[in-house]
Amino acid sequence: MPTWSLEALVFAQGFFVVGAQFACTALGPMFYPTSYRADGEGTALAVAKIGSIAGPVIGGVVIGMHLPLYQLFYVAAVPLLFSAVTSFFLGKVAQKSVPTYEASGPAHTVPSE
Predict the structure, then answer these.
(1) Does 100 reside within a domain?
(2) N or C: which end of the chain has fewer CB within 10 A?
(3) Taking Cα atoms as reference points, which of 28, 6, 23 lies closest to residue 85?
(4) How many domains does the chain divide into?
(5) DSSP symbol at 100
């Protein structure tokens, strides 16, 4: 694999990991009712912290398997793909749950002189 494509792949992985973390935090309030929204967000962030601890451990195990370098990136891509697909579908569910407002008239009226 050329160096530039490997660098692009690593950049994309980091970009989408951070994007998935922000998406989880941003989509949480759309799913939790106001009465326990703080508890729901706190639980979601706690699960994310567990993942941030387990990630390096799993990475160490995978590196310990002595796989070729390109296969390490394939293994790392699986959870990223899963989080991207999950975030996409959570966004679709959130779009359906947010009420849409139909305007009965023009959005802005200019007073006539």
Answers:
(1) no
(2) C
(3) 23
(4) 1
(5) P
